[in-house]
Structure formats: C-alpha cells, structure tokens
Amino acid sequence: MVQPAWQDPVLLAPETAPVPEYGTGSLADLLPTLVAGQGVPGFEARIPELAPADRNCVFLIDGLGWEQIKAHPDEAPFLHSLLPTSRGGTGRPVTSGFPSTTATSLASVGTGLTPGEHGLPGYTVRNPDTDALMNQLRWKPWTSLEAWQPYPTVFELADAAGVRTAQVSAPDFEQTPLTKVALSGGSFLGRLTGEDRMDLAAERLAAGDRSLVYTYYSEVDGQGHRFGVDSDAWRGQLMYVDGLARRLAEQLPPRSALYITADHGMIDIPFDEQSRIDFDEDWELSAGVALLGGEGRARHVYAVPGAQADVLTVWREVLGEQFWVAGRDEAIAAGWFGPHIDERVYGRIGDVVAAAHDDVVITASVKEPNESAMVGMHGSLTPVEQLVPLLEVRS
Questions:
Q1: Hey, how many other C-beta atoms are within 10 angstroms of the C-beta on 16?
Q2: Model-level pTM?
Q3: So what's the pLDDT on residue 3?
Q4: What is the 8-class DSSP label of residue 268?
Q5: I need a labelling partner for 185 at 20 to 30 A (CA). Which of 65, 159, 311, 356 fits?
Q6: What sign for the dihedral angle of Cα 173, 176, 178, 182?
Q7: Torsion sign (Cα): 142, 145, 146, 150
Q8: What is the DSSP letter of 140?
Q9: Is 272 exposed, middle or buried (0-12, 13-18, 19+ CB in 10 A)?
Q10: Cα separation of 253 and 207, whole Å?
Q11: What is the mean pLDDT of residues 130-147?
C-alpha cells in the first residue's frame, strides 16, 4: 500500500525482526544436543525434538536453505522427501544465527555458541584493537586465532570425552583459520570429490561406538552467488548434492543419526537501482561513515567518532522502510546476536546494523566489486535466508 504524501513513512522497528531461535532451535544448539545424548560432560540437549544416537553425522550443505528445498521437489527428490523428518519429525526448520552467513554460521555450529559469544558476528567486522575491517571468512588481515575466538569447539570437547570425532571436507579447508577456530577437534580428513567425502564420512561414523562426524559441501552456495538460485547451474548443483545425501544415507552404520542442514538460504537480487543501493555512490549513506562492514543484506556500519547518532538517523530515514535499521545497543537488546554479548565482541558489532527486509541490498561497487556483482545474496533475518533444514535419517 502506497502511503499518502502527507503521511510519514512506516519504518521497520528493530524489535519486529524475526530473531533466531537461540537456545532451542538454532544452528548453535545442534552439536551440544547431539553430544549431550552421547554423554559428553557439560552439555545439555537444547533442541528437545532430537532423540539421542550413539553415532551422529552432520552433513552441512552451504547455501541450501529450507525454502529452497521446499521449492525444488523435482531437482531434490531425496531431500524433499525428508522434509517431514526435519527437527525430530516435526517437519519444521531450525534457524541460523544473525547474520545468516557462512563464517558466522560455521562458528555457531562448531562452538555451540551464539554470534555474540564466539565473536564472528558478520562477513567483515571492525577489529576494535586496530580499527580495521576483519574478513572472518578469509581471515584477512591476519589476526590471532585465540584472541578472536578463545572458546574450545564442541568437537574438541567431544574428542576429549572419548567420542570418535572427525571432519571430512575439501583438503584446502584443513589449515584455514576459520576451520581452526570453528571446526577443529579430532581428525581432519580431506577428500576432493563429494562422493569420496560421503563414503569416508560413513566409514568414520562406523569407526567408534560413539562417533561424531561432520562433512561439508560448498558449491550449491558458489553457484547461487555466481548465477542465482533461479539458474540452471544452481539447479544442477542441487541435483548433485541430492545424490550425495542419498549416498551417505544409504551407508549409515547401525545406531546412527544423519542430520542434513545448511548455514543459510539465499535470495536473488535484481540488477536495478531500486534493488541495489550503491553505498560508494550515495553521499547520504556514506556521510560520517568510517567503515562499511558486513555484506549487502546485513551491514555493520562504523561511524567516525561523534557521528554515531547522526549516521543512525540518516540510515533509518533513508532505508528504514526496506531494512531493519538498529543502533548497536538496539540490535543487541532485540536479541539479533544472541542473549549474551561477550565484552570482546561488543565493539565488533556496527554502530549501526542494517538487515534487509525487502528484496534489496547495499552494495559497494568500488570497495567490494566482487561481492557487488553477485546474483544470489544472503545475510539477513528473513525466512528465505534464516530458515535452514535439519533433515534426519536414522539406522
């Protein structure tokens, strides 16, 4: 409905954004629930719908959200057939955290902590010690791993408690900082092909009376970014990964539970001026901004000293009908990053945080040319981005 010219626009209040189900049904709650069922000390079952199993396998498909599986029964017949099994047979999804992006989600999965605790609250965020942007996916510029994310992973704690633990992924990921801070513990086994990963995951699952195996596939996300989730290239990847999931499910050893999930969903954004707002060409949005972090649909905005209130006012006035725009403390109070924010994490969160409500992104054509050229995007709190599957197969 178009507002009459004499009426003020309706701005989206931060507290109206759909908050992830931290504590009962988010990605951060998955591994703690699984290892609690395996008797690992210090953990409790947070997702009450999940029944314990001696052997647990998590297959994370990067970029394959709940809505994408629902919309593609022909390309993903096996995954689609498992939708009723999601979240312990309730047929419901779980949520990523905020932002719904890979670095944040993988850290939540591996540590069992919320973004406000593990400290990877975005694609790029300010390092308060240097006042420079830190890319947490590529880990640039180099930053001390222990200082940035000091907590042990669930894999490390499970391995120490006698659970046979392994990660099966692409060999290139073994030594990445993100793997070390988010997914380390037990054995890392690198395999190039998806088929080899599925076969080895099943083999490692059978190797212990109690076992925890994590495996990963990235190219659904990759093709979505390059060509969009409405492309033949993306559909081809979906068909391929559907076969991988079936292959793994058919090899489960006895007393096993396989959980197929994702780190986020994805949405295609049109290439027009209404859908893509270029920060580098917009004098209003850039005024008073020292650093632009995050990504197109989930921005962390860092103001020059003394300009925080003015930047928040302008961003809310310009974008508030299309984005949930919050000051740092407002976003924290609304629960976007979880119920608790560690002191070391507070300054990494933007002075202003903007999460897309509509099909729109804030690009930065000069500073972020590669990211700005992507077709498929994610990061915000909308269902298409935040809702992820928790499909289950048991043996």
A1: 10
A2: 0.96
A3: 54
A4: E
A5: 65
A6: positive
A7: positive
A8: B
A9: exposed
A10: 9
A11: 96
* Token pair in block for residue 85: 């099994």
Tokens representing residue 342 in the block: 């560690």
> How many other CB atoms are found less than 10 A from the CB of residue 359?
16
pLDDT, average across residues 138-147: 95
CA distances for 73 relative to 42, 58, 88, 389, angstroms? 40, 22, 21, 14
Buried b (16+ CB within 10 A) or exposed e, 321-342: ebbbbbbbebbbebbbbbeebb
Q: Which of 336, 97, 361 is nearest to 225 (CA)?
A: 361
Looking up tokens 């669930």 gives 154
Amino acid at the residue 8? D
Q: Tokens 């990877």 correspond to what residue?
A: 120
Instruction: Give the amino acid at 142.
Output: W
Which pair of structure tokens corresponds to residue 262? Answer: 């994702």
Q: Which long-range contacts (CB under 8 A, 24 or more apart) does 169-177 make?
A: 169/197, 169/214, 169/215, 169/216, 170/216, 170/218, 173/216, 176/139, 177/139, 177/145
The C-alpha atoms of residue 316 and residue 293 are separated, in whole angstroms, by 17
CB-based contact 55:210 (threshold 8 Å): yes
Torsion angle (degrees, nearest 10) of CA 189, 386, 20, 145: 40
pLDDT band, very low/low/confident/very high, at 74 (cuts 50, 70, 90): very high
Q: Which two tokens stand for residue 182?
A: 């988010």
Q: Which token pair is 62? A: 């990067």
Among 235, 255, 258, 246, smallest CA distance to 195 is for 246
pLDDT of res. 251: 97
**Count of C-beta atoms within a 10 Å radius of residue 20:** 26
The verdict on whether omega for the bond into residue 32 sits within 30 degrees of 0, i.e. cis, is: no
Q: Quote the tokens at residue 73.
A: 């029964």
263-274, pLDDT tens digit by residue? 999 999 999 999
CB 38 within 8 A of CB 52: yes
Rounded distance between C-alpha atoms, residue 38 and residue 33, angstroms? 9
Handedness of CA 191, 193, 196, 198 (dihedral sign): positive
Instruction: Dig out the tokens for 284 from the structure.
Output: 């209003």
